[in-house]
């Protein structure tokens, strides 16, 4: 049934002439000799012999598929000796979307990746390709619960997206137009409007958009394969000449790299509370140290970087855990670090308010021992240390060309948990002046600052006013992500301009029997590309057997995210 409200925004297909980038003036045919040198017959020794004629080199002429978008074409630069063909029949080089014409010789290939996106606070995770095609044709989605009103596509992507959907552009119903945006992101007012979806080229992804998988595939998958991702197009350079070789520089100028270059993409897992003590520790000591990570191990390890906020220090004389221990002074057996190692932990956050419990209970400073243990396992840490200066030092990591800076502090206390000029502990937040200045400095040096708080604890999904004030302060200073690591329940989240703020992720490894609201939590997966934060995925978990988180079922996930998103919508500027 035609859907009046549903519109697919695809504008006029790019005409061949308008699609082409402004290319340098075509060189004369003689310049092609550097690519296809002429052959000649050497003169004979007889002075009266006439030289053999030298064949004229065949000019190389390139045809560019009109399906290709303007942004792609701007990356093409004709090398010396290659001309632009006026028509396909005039060409002997072909840059095509799909298979090469005829039996052409394949010279090089690249890929153009798109993603189906929706506003971040959308619960839907996946559509089938058949559902997407139906929507594109203006028909009612099969899923009547789908939060969808309109689908946007940029003018210049019209032809190629239509090709990927196996439909002609003329069959796609026009809708309300949106400004041509080029390299800029879509306007925030569009991104936050419920029901507004889009098909975007990979390079225009932004955190305010949630990627919707198509047939279970997206360009952010750990096992991304362009051949099997529905919205990714193969683009090939071919020739109908029998023998043609172009050097590496010439191929690079004619065939741009993939717009989703996996070598420039960094994935980061971030988690909430870990406290390997009490009943959690008892399960680890009886069922095996690795038992709690059984259900989440694979996706935790698949990320480029994995963050754990471990609140409890290791102590080599920590007693065997008592699951019924009623107190709040903790230590962890050093053997438990094997769980963090097995999950691929790279970054350890030390804002926790239990880091100096061993000093309180046993009069032993176990922080240096704990840091040595992290170092032994190749883990780096931040927001804590052997003294105040050490604790305030940001952790700088460069991954696949993306410069990340981790920094954090503890505002909650207790005072015993804070580092001083000559004693171990967490970095105190103080008045937030020092950390705000550091965030601004790091951003000015090209880093993407990630700030984590050990904030005041309370068991509400909504964000408290003081947290809103302080978290937004750090976002305004330049942090791309601001997380509350303290909360035992998952709390509201929001965007502050282009910064992602989450007021509490909930527990990862920590037992709180009887407080069932603490059994559900979120693991964040962030993505960074070419120096930008481009996307955040929310992996929803629930606790089983007191110590073992698992991914929620679809029904559990919808109910859980519905509550969290509703609390998020209550946040006001």
What does this structure look like?
This protein has 573 residues and is an alpha/beta fold. It has two domains: 1-23 and 54-259, 3-Layer(aba) Sandwich (D-Maltodextrin-Binding Protein, domain 2); 264-569, Purple Acid Phosphatase, chain A, domain 2 (4-Layer Sandwich), CATH 3.60.21. The protein contains 15 helices and 27 strands. The two termini are 40 Å apart. The model is unreliable at 1-56 and 176-185 (pLDDT under 50).
Supply the key terms.
nine-stranded mixed β-sheet; D-Maltodextrin-Binding Protein, domain 2; alpha/beta; 27 strands; elongated; ten-stranded mixed β-sheet; 21% helix; Purple Acid Phosphatase, chain A, domain 2; 15 helices
Strand content: 25-35%
Largest sheet: 10 strands, mixed
Q: Please work out how many helical segments DSSP would assign.
A: 15
Rg to the nearest angstrom?
29 Å
User: Within the CATH hierarchy, at the fold level, what is the topology of the largest domain?
Assistant: Purple Acid Phosphatase, chain A, domain 2
Anisotropy-based shape = elongated
Structural class: alpha/beta
Q: Under the CATH scheme, which architecture of the largest domain would be assigned? A: 4-Layer Sandwich
Query: What is the C-level CATH assignment of the largest domain?
Result: Alpha Beta
Helix content: 10-25%
CATH superfamily of the largest domain: Metallo-dependent phosphatases
Tell me the number of strands.
27
C-alpha termini separation: 40 Å
Q: Write down the overall mean pLDDT.
A: 87
How many separate domains? 2
Stretches where pLDDT is under 50 for at least 5 consecutive residues are 1-56, 176-185
